[in-house]
Amino acid sequence: MDGFPSMRWSRLFKILSRAPLNYRIEGRGSSQRRKGSHRKLVADGRPDLRMAFHDRQELPGGLIRTILVDQVGLTEEEARALL
């Protein structure tokens, strides 16, 4: 199988925030959940994610796979279907 595609943070966040994952930034606007460029993403029934948002950076495909498969818990097929 081909590797996962690289993408910018904004595209990855769109993937994470739409159904079926439905992640959202916890406490948006609150400095309590914000550490510099890091944000805490939460979703019902899914593990929390803490991610740095640097939209000018291109995320390599290996990191996309790590986030979707290893951290979120999707199978590779489920992750690819979302892309």
The level-1 CATH class: Alpha Beta
Please give the radius of gyration in angstroms.
Answer: 13 Å
- Give the biggest sheet: 4 strands, antiparallel
Quote the beta fraction.
15-25%
Bulk shape: globular
- Helix percentage: 25-40%
Helix count, DSSP H or I runs of 4 or more residues: 3
Span between termini: 14 Å
Q: Would you give the CATH topology?
A: Metal Transport, Frataxin, Chain A
Q: Mean pLDDT across all residues, rounded?
A: 88
- Strand element count: 6
CATH architecture: 2-Layer Sandwich
By helix and strand content, what is the structural category? alpha+beta
Low-confidence stretches: none
Number of domains: 1
In sequence order, what are the helices and strands, one letter per element? EHEEEEEHH
Describe this structure as you would to a colleague:
The chain is of the alpha+beta class and 83 residues long. The protein has one domain (7-82): Metal Transport, Frataxin, Chain A (2-Layer Sandwich), CATH 3.30.920. The protein has helices spanning 9-17, 61-71, 76-82, and strands at residues 7-8, 24-25, 34-35, 38-42, 49-52, 58-59. Strands 2, 3, 4 and 5 form a 4-stranded antiparallel β-sheet that branches. It has a two-stranded antiparallel sheet with strand order 1-6. Strand 4 and strand 5 (49-52) form a beta hairpin. The protein is globular. The model has no long low-confidence stretch (mean pLDDT 88).
